[in-house]
What we know:
Elements: H1 8-13, H2 37-43, H3 47-60, E1 65-68, H4 75-82, H5 85-99, E2 101-109, E3 125-133, E4 137-138, E5 158-161, E6 169-172, E7 176-180, H6 186-191, H7 204-222, E8 225-230, H8 234-238, H9 241-260, E9 271-276, H10 282-297, H11 301-304, H12 317-348, E10 363-366, H13 374-400, H14 406-415, H15 438-442, E11 447-448, E12 454-455
Antiparallel strand pairs: 1-10, 2-3, 2-7, 4-5, 5-6, 8-9, 11-12
Helix pairs in contact: 3-5, 3-12, 4-12, 7-10
Amino acid sequence: MADIRNDGFMNTVIGHGLKNKDPLANFQYGNGPILQDQDLANLYGNALVRRIIDLPADESVKNWIKIEGDDEDEKVLQALDDLHAEESFANALRWSRLFGGSAILMTINDGGTFEDPINESSITEIEQIKVYDKREVLFESLLFNDDPMRKSYGMPEWLLISPVRGTQFYVHRSRVLIFDGDPLPNREREQRNGWGLSVMQGLFDAIRNNDHSYALAILILERMGQSVTKFNGLLDKLMTDEGNKQIADRLHLIDMARSVLNTVALDTEDEFELFNMNLSNVPEMLDRFGLNVSSLTGIPFTVLFGRSPAGMNATGESDNEIFYSMVKRQQKRKLKGNLDRLTKLQQLAKRGPSGGRELKNWCIEFLPLWMPSAKEKAETEKLEAEAKKLKAEEAEIYVGINALDGSEVRKKLADGDDYEIDETLDMLGEGDNEQADPAKEETQVPVVDRKGLPKNPTGSGKVPG
Length: 465
């Protein structure tokens, strides 16, 4: 009698009780391969990757800045424009997102060389600024500051600039504006030569899957009508080389005829059927891959892909708010410090916009990322006017029932900026508002001017006796 193994089917097929058959029980997370600089440069050729890299960088400088404390002619801001600062900062931020770091070299005429620290008291002018990506800026371990008592401890004191064209040269840290990549722990940063992480490091699989899904969608459209052909004696013919070729030729002719003439010629014993594929869920599946990319980048779907996902009635207002919040963080953390540094040096330049004198209480502010249209402004003003009208009617009711005094309402209006209130009227007493009593005026003591002539305070021209 044969042995019966009750657990054979269960273990063989579904792997019950076997750890190596359970993907969750035997799962380990490992870092994917580090994308090298050339891999990142190749990825930038992908249109979706370019949009992920460029959108936040371009939005960060879209409306540029204003400098509080600058004169009406905005000479300091104009000096920055002469250096093409807006374009340079956008590119520096772009390459820091793609490669994990970039730098702007300031060519400053202060009597020193590139290897010398900037002498701020001797700056004549800033001649130009030039952007280098991470591949052209090298941190050498021997050039790092190793004095723990100094503020720049652990940072490179000098950098090696290796341009695509030209010879390498060293430059002091004070003459360079650094744009770091995404944050990294110190040990992992050391593996990347001191630079941060590229935003593309964790996006490669998601972007590849998104692109592949659209490629498969195209194939589905090409084959949305699947044909099935039944040949009489097919197996017997396939057993011979000649029959194999005949079957292949017949299938080829059928496909050509179906594509061009929409007519299929068959033998009386052959059969041909056409099955249409259901495409109703394909758009939603494509959007799912796009939503995955959007969630990983932090850029809303409506912004990244320029539309709302299928089946979702999103207005995009909240998406814009999320995106602009991300851009503002980028402005504050990566642009503000470098802009302050460049603007200060521009002011200290003796041939600069302020003649070598730093402006008093100056500061840089980024202009709003979103500017309302004329229609939106009019709608906002209308809503504000309606709100003020309701408040005025409310105050009128309170005054009418003696819950408030008119002077209290007047004081409240004076606290705002909507109306210009003459405060001297508030200083008048109740007697100033009373009508003059002629009987009292006749008994008033005359006022004598400097020439000793009596003067009538009532202005009637009659000198009281």
